Amino acid sequence: MTSTYDRLVGLLAKSFGIEADEVAPANTFEDLELDSLALVELTLAAQEEFGITLTDDDLHAKSSLTEAAEVLDAKQVTV
Q: What's the topology of domain 3-78?
């Protein structure tokens, strides 16, 4: 996978105690049982980690980890 995906999984592990070997690229945040508050916390952590600005619409409960990594990649390119 991409380094963005790996960094995203690292954020999930650090912030939410999700083990890296327990997730797959197709997992959604909903699959990982992240509620709306957890998604807000993840959004804030991702903004800090990647040095980007995310909107409330960028990460959704039904977004897969691959889709989320693609959003993060796109935001980094436009910065």
A: 1.10.1200
